[in-house]
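Good morning,

Attaching, inline, the C-alpha cells for the sequence recovery test we're adding to the shared suite. The designed sequence is right after.
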C-alpha cells in the first residue's frame, strides 16, 4: 500500500486517544502552550484519517507514525475499558459520587435528561470522549475547575454552554463533548471538588 493510501486510512477512537495522550505529555514537558494544546486536541477529535492526525505530533519527539498496514490496537489498559452507553427516554439518568470515567461514553436523552457529576470521578485515561444525542432533552455536567472541556457539537434549535475555568492546567483531564442537540442542550457547571452536591 502506497504512502498516500496509508494516510487516507480512517482512524478510530483508540488512535485519537493515543494522540491526545501524546499531546498532553508534550504539554506537561513544556513543549506546547495551553492555547496550542487546546487547538491540537480539538483537531485530534475532529480527525477522520491518518492524514489529519499525523501532522499534530510530527514536531514532537513522541509522535504518531504512519501505519505500515492495518493499524494495531493500542495496548494501554485504559483503552480496553468498555464504553458506557446510557439512555434517558421520557426519564432521567444520573451518575455521581465516586466512579471511574471510561475513555468513551454515550448519552442519549429524548424527552428526558441526564446529569453527570465528575467532582469525585477518576479518569481512566487522560481524555474522555462524551458523545451526546439530545432531542428535546438535556444533559447537565458538573465538572471540577481543573478539568478541560472541549465542545465539538452540532446544535439545531438547541445549544451548549460552559463557564470556562482559569484553573485548567496543561496536564488536566480532558472531556471532549461531541454529538447533536435538537431542541435540547448540554450545560457544563463548574464547582469545586469538595463542594457537596446540592
Amino acid at each position: 500500500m502506497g504512502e498516500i493510501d496509508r494516510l487516507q486510512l480512517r482512524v478510530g477512537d483508540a488512535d485519537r486517544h493515543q494522540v491526545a495522550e501524546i499531546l498532553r505529555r508534550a504539554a506537561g514537558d513544556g513543549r506546547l502552550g495551553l492555547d496550542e494544546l487546546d487547538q491540537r486536541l480539538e483537531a485530534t477529535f475532529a480527525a477522520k484519517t491518518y492524514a489529519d492526525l499525523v501532522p499534530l505530533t510530527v514536531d514532537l519527539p513522541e509522535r504518531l507514525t504512519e501505519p505500515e498496514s492495518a493499524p494495531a490496537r493500542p495496548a494501554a489498559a485504559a483503552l480496553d475499558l468498555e464504553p458506557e452507553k446510557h439512555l434517558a427516554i421520557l426519564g432521567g439518568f444520573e451518575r455521581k459520587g465516586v466512579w471511574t470515567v471510561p475513555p468513551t461514553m454515550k448519552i442519549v436523552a429524548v424527552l428526558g435528561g441526564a446529569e453527570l457529576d465528575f467532582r469525585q470521578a477518576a479518569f481512566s485515561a487522560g481524555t474522555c470522549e462524551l458523545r451526546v444525542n439530545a432531542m428535546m432533552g438535556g444533559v447537565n455536567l458538573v465538572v471540577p475547575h481543573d478539568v478541560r472541556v472541549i465542545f465539538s457539537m452540532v446544535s439545531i434549535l438547541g445549544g451548549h454552554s460552559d463557564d470556562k475555568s482559569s484553573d485548567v492546567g496543561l496536564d488536566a483531564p480532558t472531556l471532549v463533548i461531541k454529538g447533536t442537540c435538537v431542541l435540547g442542550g448540554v450545560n457544563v457547571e463548574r464547582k469545586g471538588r469538595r463542594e457537596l452536591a446540592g
